[in-house]
């Protein structure tokens, strides 16, 4: 096993995929010569050449549209959008073309592409560099949506996404790029090199899309989350007096409903946690599914903990995030029910 940051694991996944398949190409703003704004593609252009790792104009619509055309004609493009906040000009191409190409062509054309986007807050990026738009993708039939929480998962999920025959949205929590934390965003990061989850298999491997992971077993209540909030959930669970089971979804679509149902049926109590705003957030879909599938097992109302329903605040970033204290209060509430 090797020690890697999430950035290094993502870079390694790119290189391994490009080694195995000459049809894998990487494109985006500054991904080539500079190696990406977060350095996730550093060294790929020098190693594989400018035809397989190249810079694009500052046009998200152009990046996505070009990648769709490449995918339709047999390549496997991995497109980077510098920040998830910038994807809106390309959203029409993602929804109207990438997600529908297999269906509108009756399978004659497919769209095996990955769109990578740094997502979420934690770096004081304010409104235009901190959004969590996952619900905008999970609403669209034909897309898969992935959010890793560790370097090992990031590598295995990205390799599976590149190998997938359909379009995958790959959201990378930028707060976790260089290291996890104790759940409080304003505490110093713990380098992945000193964290157990920083261990990554240096060889090629895939983590199947659609498989959640129970990262903490428990019997009193179930806490369902993904991405950065996995670490918040674990911190809250450890600090609470309850025996909390924590599920890392890893893939939002396809969703591993079986793991969720098994856990909630066992515990009878459930909290859904995400960084994105509450209203119409992805947590609402999970809550509805649990209500339908686990109604007779529930001992208390399902709780949702999420970001505020406001534009992203810069000055109050640490209060905006659902921290361990807010999650712990939700745990206490469901345990009282």
TrEMBL record:
InterPro entries in UniProt: THDP-binding, Transketo_C/PFOR_II, Transketolase-like_Pyr-bd, Transketolase_C
SUPFAM superfamilies named in the record: Thiamin diphosphate-binding fold (THDP-binding), TK C-terminal domain-like
One GO biological process term: response to nutrient
Leading EC class: oxidoreductase
Cofactor: thiamine diphosphate
Residues in Transketolase-like pyrimidine-binding domain copies: 4-179
Identification of the protein by name: 3-methyl-2-oxobutanoate dehydrogenase (2-methylpropanoyl-transferring)
Species in which this protein is naturally found: Pseudodonghicola xiamenensis
């Amino acid at each position: 096993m090797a020690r890697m940051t999430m950035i290094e694991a993502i870079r390694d996944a790119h290189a391994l995929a490009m080694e195995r398949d000459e049809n894998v190409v990487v494109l985006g703003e500054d991904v080539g010569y500079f190696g990406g704004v977060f350095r996730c593609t550093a060294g790929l252009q020098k190693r594989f050449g400018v035809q397989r790792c190249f810079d694009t104009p500052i046009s998200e619509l152009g990046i996505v549209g070009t990648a769709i055309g490449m995918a339709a004609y047999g390549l496997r493009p991995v497109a980077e959008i510098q920040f998830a906040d910038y994807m809106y000009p390309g959203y029409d191409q993602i929804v109207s073309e990438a997600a529908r190409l297999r269906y509108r062509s009756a399978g004659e054309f497919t769209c095996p592409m990955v769109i990578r986007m740094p997502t979420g807050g934690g770096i004081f990026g304010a409104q235009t560099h901190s959004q969590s738009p996952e619900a905008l993708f999970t609403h669209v039939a034909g897309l898969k949506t992935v959010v890793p929480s560790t370097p090992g998962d990031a590598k295995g999920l990205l390799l599976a996404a590149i190998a997938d025959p359909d379009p995958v949205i790959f959201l990378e929590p930028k707060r976790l790029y260089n290291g996890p934390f104790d759940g409080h965003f304003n505490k110093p990061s713990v380098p992945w090199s000193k964290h157990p989850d920083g261990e990554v298999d240096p060889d090629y491997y895939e983590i199947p899309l659609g498989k959640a992971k129970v990262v903490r077993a428990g019997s009193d209540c179930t806490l369902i989350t993904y991405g950065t909030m996995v670490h918040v959930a674990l911190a809250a669970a450890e600090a609470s007096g309850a025996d909390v089971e924590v599920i890392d979804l890893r893939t939002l679509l396809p969703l591993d409903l079986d793991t969720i149902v098994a856990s909630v049926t066992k515990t009878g109590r459930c909290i859904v946690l995400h960084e994105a705003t509450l209203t119409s957030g992805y947590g609402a879909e999970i809550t509805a599914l649990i209500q339908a599938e686990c109604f007779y097992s529930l001992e208390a109302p399902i709780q949702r903990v999420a970001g505020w329903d406001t534009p992203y605040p810069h000055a109050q970033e640490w209060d905006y995030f659902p921290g361990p204290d807010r999650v712990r209060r939700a745990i206490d509430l469901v345990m009282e029910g």
